[in-house]
Design a protein that fits this description.
With about 150 residues, this protein is α/β, with parallel strands linked by helices. Helix content is about 45%, strand content about 15%. It is globular, with a radius of gyration of 14 Å.
Amino acid sequence: MKIPFFRRKEFFSDAEKQQIVAAIQAAEKQTSGEIRVFVESRCKYVAPLDRAAEVFSILKMDKTAARNGVLVYVALKDRQLAIMGDQGIHEKVGNEFWEKEVRQMLAEFNKANYADGIAKIIGEIGEALRTHFPYDKEGDINELPDDIVFGK
């Protein structure tokens, strides 16, 4: 199933987009892990985690060598979000970590701090990835793009 990525909405200002991408790049400089952000207007499913799982697969995030990709999924108009970690990182941090990160991001969103909230959570996810999958300058490559992916 294809997602129409090209109908980009202007959810964020250019400065906010740069802030989020910079947070991804800073986090990934310290880990072999990969972080992606997917933002759309509406969630196609009742449970945002189901939509996140679909997007995770479409973005081929389950293809990283160490299975340490993390997706931050946000449906702004529906006020839904999810964070999905691949098998490698999930086995290290567990459900409690993801649930805590979602609660913190919701707290930021409730204050209308969308870009700040996403950037903050990316930093915390980056720390967890660094702890369990530290950067190896000899062998690590950036396996996935760092840009924000926009859906409908």
